[in-house]
TrEMBL record:
Pfam families linked to this entry: Hexapep
Gene Ontology molecular function, alphabetical: acyltransferase activity
Family membership: Belongs to the transferase hexapeptide repeat family.
UniProtKB keywords: Acyltransferase, Repeat, Transferase
Record protein name field: Serine acetyltransferase
InterPro entries: Hexapep, Hexapep_transf_CS, LbH_SAT, Trimer_LpxA-like_sf
CDD domains given in the database record: LbH_SAT (cd03354)
Amino acid sequence: MNTATKADLFRHSGKISLGKFLFCLIRIPGFRFIYLWRKAKRYSKYNPLGLLFKLLYIHFAYKYGFQIPLHVQIGSGFYIGHFGTIIINRSAVIGNNCNIAPNVTIGQTNKGDKKGVPHIGNEVWIGTGTVIVGKIKIGNNVLIAPNSFINSDVPSNSLVMGNPATVIPKSKDITDDYVINIFGEGKLK
């Protein structure tokens, strides 16, 4: 099991063991999908194992309503809390230990000075129904409240809410009770 998969497993279960891995793979849709996504991304399409993982990835993408292309850059410890429509642009970048809820769109803007896609930092919690668009940067340790619309930069250690988004500077520990079970860097949180 590679480090990213261990981090994903730890985020979903709080433990790393073969039993927890099998339990999460069978019973937790978010973990199952991200595991298959990482495997499909890792193996070449010309490799028979890669073809199998890609077919499973496509099957579960349709089943769960996830549009997360293999080109997206997603860090380790990615947590999908519930299945339901999640759309992420193929050029988006998502950091380590991020949570994403259903009905989230991370998309592209095609006009203006924000033309492009978002870059999301580490330890970001994205609430249900959130829309994040444009060439913007969301810092580390950011909590995005449900149903927010974000089209401008968000500094680290912030709470974001509303449509249009309002940024409320907070403290370093804003996501402590939301982004849990962090694996790696010599610490377990």
